[in-house]
Amino acid sequence: MADQLASAIAANVLGKLGSIVWREFRMIVKIEGELKELTDTMTTIEAVLLDAEEKQASNHALSNWLGKLKDIFHEIEEVLDEVEYQVQRKRANDKYGRTIKEVCDFSSRTKAFWSRHFQVVDKIKSIRERLGKIAGEKDQFDLTAARVEDRRVIHTRREMTHSFVPPSDVIGRNNYKENIISDLLRQPNGNQNVNVIRIDGIGGLGKTTVAKLVYDDECVAHHFELRMWICVSEDFEIPRLIREILMESGVRIDENFGPHNGLQTKMREKLKNKRFLLVLDDVWNEDRNKWNELKDLLLGGAKGSKILVTTRTNKVASIMSAVSSYTLEGLSEKDSLSLFIKYAFNEGEDKQYPNLLEIGKEIVKKCKGVPLAIRTLGSLLFSKVNEREWKFVRDNEIWKLEQKEGDILPALQLSYNPMPSHLKQCFSFCSLFPKNYLFDSGKLIAFWMAHGLLNKKPNTQDEELEDVGDMYFKELWSRSFFQDVEKDFWNNGYQFRMHDLVHDLALKVAEEVCSADDFHTQNNAKTVRHLSFSHDGRQVPSFFDTISSDVRTTLFQTKQQELILVEKCISRFNCLRVLCLSDSCFEVLPSSIGNLQHLRYLSLAGNEKIKKLPNSICKLYNLQTLLLHGCSTLERLPKDTRKMISLRHLTVTTTNEFLFGNGENCLNSLQFLLVSRCPGLESLFQRMEKSLANLRTLIVSGCESLTSLNLDVKCLTALEALVIEDCKVLTLQKERHVLPFLTGTEDDRDLKFKIRKLKIYNLPELESLPPWLEGSANTLQFLSISFCENFMALPEVEWGSDLKSLEIIGCPKLSSLPKDRLIALRELTIEYCPELIRKCKEEDSFKIDHIATVRLQD
Known about the structure:
By secondary structure, the protein is of the alpha/beta class. It has 26 helices and 23 strands.
């Protein structure tokens, strides 16, 4: 991946050289000449990188040349980051003042300031000279400069919807579906209560898709009292599977739930005398003893219970003792072509391009009936009408490489290769997570942002980096690299998974710079820059000593018991951009964390022992994401939190009664704020008059003592999504609010909330929506009010044409909706509101004929 991403690194460096930060630095230090020469050299090199990356596989000297470029590009990045840190530091201190000691020490600070900047100038000059020599070597490779249009990303993609696959969208699998359903519904003849049905076949044939069609079938849903879906993959550890089964069956599990034997007992109780369906998807376990142990624990279900297993290996299939088995074959030529057309063309468009269709038939034959390969290449060619691009796929040399039976990586590689370099780099980061991992797009986008992979287009002031990341995510989704995508509506993101074979591709393209627990066979330690660990970490400190100190990502995905591990990581890797210590158990975060000048993403989420954060954390002027939710004993945020001027994404759990102790003018860059499970929190915002102007999403959850949000329209003009849940004493009527649309100066009258999504859940004291929300009546698109037992009325205001979805659940005192005010409503859900449902069914009381989707449940 390192060489393939040289073009992305170059683009990132050029973007930074033209940034506001560097324009500010140029005003302080006169280095115009050096920077212009460096920029010109970088631009010349960038133009030929795409051609070089395509040719490097067959040219060892060219590959080495790209390697040298990559190393020096990383050096430039370090210098740019150092400058960015110093500029951000200056901004923070100029804005919020310096300590008395700093003022008294003015002379030494001034000397140090100029010393640092002269060092930067010397570094830039040295790098520029070395880069010029390397750039001169490009002429020997006969490289072609890419045209501007070749480097432009064209985002012409079909509209994204959701992850549910309607039966009509699955081609060539209906017979399998019907036969499997028949077996599931059939009562067993033998003595065993629980029978196994197996679906097997090579990767990419659609085993999981068939299982989903069966699982979601209405007859199946009604037949079984309990349905559970477990993604197994390579981790067939019985305790883990029991926990997953319990959680799927509605039992809440935490780390202190009890010993393994207790979990077994709980599961047997849950399944006893119930007819259940358990899907074990993607099983790799070849140990018959483990399989028998799990099966024995499931035999207490009622007669007719079924276990549906999907697997791709014959040995796994042989130990299952299934009463029925289905081996998926490749799609027929006709079905393969139908599937390809569905992904490569808009509906009916294939008839307009008969020449492309003929080329497509030849491409489909090379896919050998494997749906994943067909979908991926169809997605690749969607919207492309140039025959040359289609023939490039058909005639590519990659088809001639030696392939194993059922190997579809060539097809996936063909879809990967033409991607722009920034998308390749974003895709490769997915290799840091294990197979079957449930991704969160917001977290992934924050990773991309931390590494500078998100580039805004010129003249797009209203576009945020998060919007760019969302566009990148949807681009990868549209290319079929992501699947099972579900919209996380209120967090304004998505959850998704990757097919195992797509994950294999990510590992393949990232193998030179990423490591995922492969300590003993790692043969590229000096090039490793991104680390992911999913074991107990006992071997990690010694492993740290064997790799380059230029690590940019350290991701721990398991509980870490030893503080020495954290200290070792911080001291060893001073170039870190991402440090994930989620679910850790240490009590003190080392003050040396403040030395990580390049850090942009820090997660301490789920640490239940940490009580305080060192104030040195506020020296992380470049930090964009700070995750502290689930830190149940954290007393307060550091006093200088306001100096973290780059912070865009913050989640907090604290025991303090106030969120920000000294909140004047802090967190101006914040886009997303989650305040979760703060039992003593009484007021959300204090003295925030000019802050949070860029906040777009605010989620307040589980704050039982919260009496006031202290919202101010002048503070939150960018707020789009507001979620308030599980706040037992919050009425939303005691706010320190400003109503510029009712009072105030003429300039103030245009200021109002512009909320698009509002969710209120389990506020038992709420009786009505507060006046300060009425200003959003014309912008609100989605409104959900659930389990507010004293809620009595929606305001009689003119709800605008944007309100498309209204959800009312568990509000028994609400007896009516605004008459003739919900003119644009397209979705209406009302559940457990008996009086309101009765009124809605009376035509004279409330007309619902114009609403496309109506769900009423008593």
